[in-house]
Write a structure and sequence with these properties.
6 helices, rod-shaped, 20% strand, alpha+beta, 2 domains, 5 strands, 57% helix
């Protein structure tokens, strides 16, 4: 009788040893019917088996939940990394744009434009006959002021020096168009001056 009990205990111990070493993926291969029969032969060992079994289930549950949490964390990290990269690119673009704005020539209002044009005309011996009213084109990002001017130039050399002075101004001045016109008076004919109409603009960036 004792020999039989000893054999049963040894058999149960082997079962417990195998169960404690069991891999999660091998759970589906367990002969649960045989396992229950062996366990109930020795009820004093049943508590240990249940504890081991519950530990395996708890470990599997924790492992599964942690795996899901880890995957979610990886996805969130990937999204954050993409957002961070986009933010860095946006910051660089903003900095470049600000540098462009800071380097842009100083804009001029209509009266200031007239003053600068007159100064350039006097410096290059150009007679300004008249200025048109300001033609203002307002936009969401900038304002563009255009002025039409009629001038008399003693020579092409003087005229091109006048144009160069305007275009190379540290202010936002630009000659957009040039057009010759016939003489309007005897003085213009006798002095043999060039009669020219031109359009000058000033761009004001809205910062």
């Amino acid at each position: 009788m004792r020999a039989n009990n000893l054999m049963d205990i040894q058999k149960l111990n082997r079962t417990l040893s195998e169960l404690s070493k069991l891999d999660i993926n091998d759970l589906k291969n367990i002969d649960y019917k045989k396992l229950v029969q062996d366990l109930f032969k020795k009820k004093d060992k049943l508590t240990r088996v249940i504890a081991v079994f519950l530990s395996i289930i708890a470990g599997f549950y924790i492992w599964t939940n942690n795996g899901k949490t880890l995957n979610r964390s990886k996805e969130q990290l990937s999204i954050l990394q993409e957002q961070l990269a986009a933010f860095k690119e946006l910051s660089i673009a903003k900095a470049d744009f600000q540098k462009t704005l800071d380097a842009f020539p100083e804009p001029l209002e209509y009266k200031e434009m007239i003053e600068k044009i007159n100064e350039s005309a006097i410096a290059n011996n150009i007679d300004v006959l008249n200025f048109s009213p300001a033609n203002i084109q307002a936009g969401s990002l900038y304002d563009l002021i255009r002025v039409h001017i009629a001038v008399l130039a003693p020579s092409y050399t003087h005229f091109w020096q006048f144009i160069h002075t305007l275009d190379s101004s540290p202010h936002a001045l630009r000659v957009e168009s040039i057009q010759g016109r016939p003489a309007a008076s005897k003085k213009e004919i006798t002095e043999n001056k060039l009669n020219i109409d031109l359009e000058v603009s000033s761009l004001k960036i809205k910062k």
